[in-house]
Predict the structure of Elongation of fatty acids protein.
Amino acid sequence: MVQMCRMAGTLLLTTWLCSCGSGLAKLVLQPDNDLTRFRAGPIDTPWTQPKVLSFSFSAEDVEIVALKVPAGTSGAPPSDLATPGTPGAQSSTLDFFYHFQFEKEFIGATLTAWCRKHWYLSYVIAFVYLLLLSAGTDWMKDKEAFNLKGPLAMWNLFLAVFSFCGMVRTVPHLMALLSEHGFMYTVCRAATISYGNGPAGLWVCLFIFSKYVELIDTWFLVVRKRNVGFLHWYHHCTVLLYCWHAYVWEMPTGIYFVAMNYSVHAIMYLYYFLAAVMKRPPKWALLVTIMQLVQMAIGITVTVIHIATMMNRTVPNCDGYLPNLAAALCMYASYFMLFAQFLLLRYCIQKRHKPANKLQ
């Protein structure tokens, strides 16, 4: 029965983004990074002039990230759509954060194009992941659990430090965007313009690829003969699928997902590290679950606003892709219900004091 459920889950997850996938064929055919594919009309949104957000560009780099205007539209892009790094741009509000040169020079267009070309990769990995999960669980049935306390502690510490570094790079960038350009800028301006380059762009890219690496979490559970619940593998698969698809479509609101997830994971993996090295796990497991619920609630809110903005055209030519947003809304809503169920069962009904099962 368990294997049948997992196989059913495999099929469901393979087709989970089928509505989004209908647009991937057209997307793959795009040889460049022309953001006009998001638009139904001229670029006429009155955004304020972007400021330098902790990175700089050379003249050649600017050509990569600049918006292209369709022929026959109402004129060239207004000055308020100037590319970050152009003459007259104001100094960064993030100068007090030290950034390495390789971070400043990062241009996301190349990796975005690579991910666009290999859009199927996340589907293949998710499918193989579920097959290996089923096979690994069966293989461990007649074997003793491995004692991996040391490696597990180091693994969780690595992910905690990695997530903290990502949080330091993405959260201030999001705050700067909100402060300097307003909320609707973060909702409607594609990643290439708002957060796809420089330190924030690099750590967003690392975030996308880290979802493959985090699948190792499940391996630790399997070889230690711990229960791998539905929430665990469902979360890993859907996040992997959605993040890859959102990165390909350069979704504007992706910066919210990345910044929040980095922040929650920094705390969560620190908790798991301390639980692995201490005789008694910390007493703030409930805090981690509450943070996850808050993350999902904010994600639902931002996604609903983005969908409403695009459907009602309250912001002309708002960037985004509605099938991706629909998938995001379903994903966030399902996470919220599953984490709420976990919280109620563990802290309100069962009232146990055992270490929390790994959720992500």
About this structure: The chain is about 65% helix and 0% strand. The chain has one domain: 2-350. The two ends are 24 Å apart (CA to CA).
